[in-house]
Amino acid sequence: METSKLKRESEYKWVIEPVGKMRVPAIIYADKQLIEQMDEKVCEQASNVAALPGIVKACYVMPDAHWGYGFPIGGVAAFDPDADGVISAGGVGFDIACGVRTLTTGLKVDQIEQVKEQLLDLLARRVPAGVGSRGKIKLNPAEIDDMLAGGARWVVEQGWGSSEDLERIEGGGCASGARPECVSAEAKKRQRDQVGTLGSGNHYLEVQRICEIYDEKTAEVYGLRKGEVAISIHCGSRGLGHQIGTDFLKKMVAEAGRYGIKLAERELACAPIKSPTGQEYLGAMRSGINCALANREVITHLVREVFAELFPKVQLKLLYDVSHNTCKEEIHNVDGEKKRLFVHRKGATRSFGSGFSELPEQIRDAGQPVIIGGTMGTASYILAGTNESGQLAFGSSCHGAGRNMSRHQATRRWRGRDVVKSLAHRGILIRSPSMRGVAEEAPKAYKDVGAVVESAHQARLSRKVARLEPMVCVKG
Fold first, then answer.
1. What whole-number distance in Å separates Cα of residue 124 and Cα of residue 430?
2. What is the mean pLDDT of residues 167-178?
3. What would the pLDDT profile of 198-230 be if each residue is shown by its tens digit?
4. pLDDT digits (tens, 9 = 90+) for 78-134
5. Residue 344 falls in the annotated catalytic set
6. Strand 462-475, strand 380-385: pairing
7. d(Cα 127, Cα 297) in Å, to the nearest integer?
8. Residue-level pLDDT at 130
9. Do residues 70 and 288 touch, judged by C-beta distance below 8 A?
10. DSSP secondary structure letters along 25-56
């Protein structure tokens, strides 16, 4: 991206001033090198989002941003329902409530090293991965509706998880206001036997070594200790979420003119929050959120079964589960006034600071854990939300490394088997049903996650707590 198009307000803050149809500025948080690595479409898409009805303050762009459908991935935008604000299927994304949860184990790295291959084999057998992957749990139509209404709470009631997990999941494990009746029969059909599966693309189940602590006090509160092992699960709402996105994108495009909305590009399709279509999408999207929360809870249950076979006395404790493709109804301070807003985070993680009432008491003073997924060959990070982030970007931070080349470009440059072999030389074991998928997700196809995290830290969107490196990875 050409920096000449931007006004630089600080080392980590860049502004696109309102021009043309823009109602508010677009603000990008990143260092100069990351800005230069971003494709030009990021600037264009952020400007388009800034022109949507009812947008408040600014369209915010995170350090890991890249081109997406309609909204840039790494985009944050909040809309006021009382000012004709809109909700956008493209602003949430097709993988509704894709997110990451991290579990602590208390195990030392050498304990995992002794059983590493056996552990990976067991995890790969127990947790299905890949395009169209199917699990052993089959839900009938009534059970699917119950799952879409109840999320992780419902699957825990069925015996596929732990009630202790619920307070460590965003929203208590269930998005209220879900309306399964707004989810199409085709979407429900696609989800019938996909509960407890990873899916494809950049989704993963990873066993990680905690290799660096930046904030000892917060790390201790979170249960993170250098030299111990953590587990991260990254996945979303599978085929159901994709179908919800597809269904409502078509509907919003068809109805845009009725609401006087002119779309700069098709994928910006949206509807007024208070309109029938807006309310239906909210109900369906919240059902998709519950699907994703249920999915990650079931996978956690399967992972615990594997670890119980190898380490019978070990308890895997959930640190936190947070989504990064959502629209959430939240109260934010806007020019000294508290407003009810609908905050779209597409490839962006909620990052609320200390004292946030939704957090369990044990970690409330430390702030919300912000889980940043890396690549299978680099690192992931645990950050903490900051109180400043609320004013900087509606309490949001980055979500991962962010791609710097397309999947097609990656497959032309690398072969999956070579990537697996190269990582094995470094002691990182990979299992995937698709060598093409491994090539698409080659570590060098992504930005430097360390630089992304440093920008988020320096901009005060979130603060660094710990760095985690992969040991074994089940890849979608």
1. 10
2. 96
3. 988 889 999 999 999 999 999 999 999 999 999
4. 999 999 999 999 999 999 999 999 999 999 999 999 999 999 999 999 998 877 778
5. no
6. antiparallel
7. 12
8. 76
9. no
10. -EEEE--HHHHHHS-HHHHHHHHHHTTSTTB-
Per-domain residue ranges for the chain? 3-81+100-475
Arithmetic mean of pLDDT, 362-384: 96
Cα 66 from Cα 73, distance rounded (Å): 5
Rounded Cα–Cα distance for residues 378 and 371 (Å): 15
The CATH number of domain 3-81+100-475 is 3.40.50.300:
no
pLDDT at position 4:
77
Kind plus residue range of the DSSP H or E element containing 240: helix 238-255
- d(C-alpha 108, C-alpha 322), whole Å: 25
Q: Are 234 and 330 in contact (CB under 8 A)?
A: no
Q: Tell me, what amino acid is at 15?
A: V
Query: What is residue 112's predicted lDDT score, i.e. its pLDDT?
Result: 98
The stretch 279-306 carries a mean pLDDT of 97
Distance CA 8, CA 5 (A): 10
CA 167 – CA 68 distance, rounded (Å): 32
- Please indicate, yes or no, whether the overall pTM of this predicted structure exceeds 0.85: yes
Q: What percent of the chain clears pLDDT 90, i.e. is strictly above it?
A: 89
Beta strands in 300-405 (DSSP E): 317-323, 325-334, 337-346, 349-350, 369-372, 380-385, 396-397
For residue 476, how far is the Cα from the chain centroid? 15
Task: Exactly one of 324, 399, 408, 425 is catalytic; name it.
Answer: 399
